[in-house]
Design goal:
By secondary structure, the chain is an alpha+beta fold. Strands 1-3-4-5-2 form a 5-stranded antiparallel beta sheet, covered by helices on one side. It is about 25% helix and about 30% strand. The chain is elongated. A hairpin with a 6-residue loop joins strand 3 and strand 4. It has a domain of about 100 residues: Hotdog Thioesterase (Thiol Ester Dehydrase, Chain A, Roll), CATH 3.10.129.
Amino acid sequence: MESRLYWEDLKPGTVLDLGTVSPTAEEIKAFATQFDPQPFHVDEQAGRESVFGGLCASGWHTCAMAMRLTVDNFLRNSSSMGSPGLEKLSWMKPVFPGDVLTLRHRILESRPLRSKPDIGLVRSVWEMFNQNGEQVLLMEGYGMFRRREPG
């Protein structure tokens, strides 16, 4: 499929709504069982007895849900060349079964890569909110995108 968004299209200040996701208790437990089997992620009673007050998603699961929304609603239609990493990652509030999570992506800055003139670097922030408008996730990092017209 021909890419629709290139580095030149990704201007600082651009804000993208990347959709919503709502994890179920079964999805939370399945992810945690495989990747983060702490008691409050895999057992309702342990969750109720924890500081979180109920079964909650692993922060890594929250990141994975954000990544899925990012791929489905942005990267799949872009010239993405991957990422050199994140600078910030914060889990602000727990995510519970049935929460409706909305992801917003904001481009902070953009520059061509000196070492690879066919690629541009974009620094962005991803913010995820629950149905009450409370922020549950903050990520800040970089993406590399093919340039339409290498410099």
